[in-house]
Amino acid sequence: MNKGRYSSQVLLDEAAVFSCMAYVDLNPVRAGIVEKLEDAKNTSVKKRLAKIKAIEPIEVQSVLDSNITSLSKTIHSKTLSMSLRNYIELVEWTGRNIVHPNKAKLPTHIISSLKSLNLQPTHWLKQIEHFNQHYCHVVGPVALIRERAKQLKKCYLKGISAAKLHYLQPS
Q: In a 3-state reduction of DSSP, which class is residue 67?
């Protein structure tokens, strides 16, 4: 693994995309630069919040209830399966718990969103706080990491232990 400042990882499923988005959006919070998402500079969640503030009040509910789409007009746009409202609430809750650990319980509707992505709600905070340390080249559930290892003709890829904790295991 490259020990430099930047690294790249293959995100194997939508849950990995959301985890990575939240991890990046919360960089200024984890670094202690800001406590609130609105105060962060150069994050997609700040851009999404600013976009909501700029629209007509009558449109806010429909925008919040719509699924997340790419902010970039140059990238092929894909709609993700979580509403903007749930993503913002998830990132806000996560940020508050990074700043003030164990102060608030994860809301039930957010637990449902995480479970629908096959993510373990009880380990969400650890997933975000240690995202870059738990995975090396790939992020995703155990089965997809093992499949990727086979594709690369490797016996093992780092991240299986983390995936066992962070993803719901098939019964």
A: strand
pTM, 2 dp: 0.85
Q: What is the pLDDT of residues 117-155, one digit of tens each?
A: 899 999 998 888 888 777 778 899 999 999 999 999 999
Whole-angstrom distance, CA of residue 107 vs CA of residue 123: 14
Distance separating alpha carbons of residues 162 and 123, to the nearest angstrom: 10
Phi/psi class of residue 58: alpha, beta or left (left: φ > 0; alpha: ψ in -120 to 50)? alpha
Say how many domains are in the chain.
1
- Asked whether residue 153 is domain-assigned, the answer is no
Residue 144 corresponds to which tokens in the numbers above?
Answer: 């997809």
Domain range for 40 is 17-130
The reply to whether 9 falls in a domain is no
